[in-house]
Design goal:
Helix content: 10-25%
Shape: globular
Structural class: mainly beta
Number of helices: 4
Distance between the termini: 40 Å
Largest sheet: 7 strands, antiparallel
Order of helices and strands: EEHEEEEEHEHHEEEEEE
Length: 187
């Protein structure tokens, strides 16, 4: 254990990194909740087709404006990974504050997530599109980078769709919340 004295701010205790401590610390970071979807993939005669995939992700971020690039991460042990590993196109849905149930369904293992949430339709390239999201980015996967037990997926937005403006769904401390909205002028 190491301690660091921060003048005026007290002492910070630094401990070695272990999985549980790391996970607990990351729960303190608020993240926008997204659902990533991919179409079913027909792999040919030798391999079985892969079902469409969809999963809740809090690791979504913008990477570059020129060219436009975004990223998300997915564990390679995830049931969605086999489809994502071969997908050419994905859709990233930024969920609205009232879409907690959508986030929960797409975060649940062992179920048909698309049957659990009937509010979707097939979009371009066969990508499932979820309704009522704040925004949807239809993307082409440009690169996959292995990083520990996850893979970082870089994707280029090809088309954008904006739903009604509103507050985003946010994941914080293991649960869902939302933003407070704009600060009042007199604060």
């Amino acid at each position: 254990m190491t301690t660091v004295d921060r003048p005026g701010a007290g002492t910070v205790e630094l401990r070695p990194v272990d999985t549980d401590t790391f996970r607990g610390l990351l729960r303190r970071q608020a993240s926008t909740v997204t659902v990533v979807t991919t179409p079913c993939l027909h792999t040919g005669r030798r391999l079985p087709s892969l079902p469409p995939a969809g999963f809740t992700a809090t690791s979504f971020t913008s990477v570059s404006l020129d060219p436009p690039l975004v990223s998300f991460c997915l564990g390679r042990e995830s049931s969605s990974w086999p489809t994502v590993a071969h997908a050419e196109h994905v859709a990233v849905h930024l969920l609205a504050s009232g879409q907690q149930e959508v986030a929960k369904i797409f975060a649940t293992s062992g179920i048909d997530r698309f049957a659990g949430h009937p509010g979707w339709e097939t979009g371009p390239f066969g990508v499932p599109l979820i309704g009522d999201a704040l925004a949807v980015l239809l993307c082409r996967v440009v690169r996959r980078i292995e990083a520990g037990d996850h893979t970082l997926v870089l994707a280029e937005p090809l088309a954008l769709g904006a739903g009604e403006d509103g507050d985003p769904l946010v994941h914080h401390r293991g649960g869902y919340t939302t933003t407070l909205g704009a600060w009042p002028e007199t604060w």
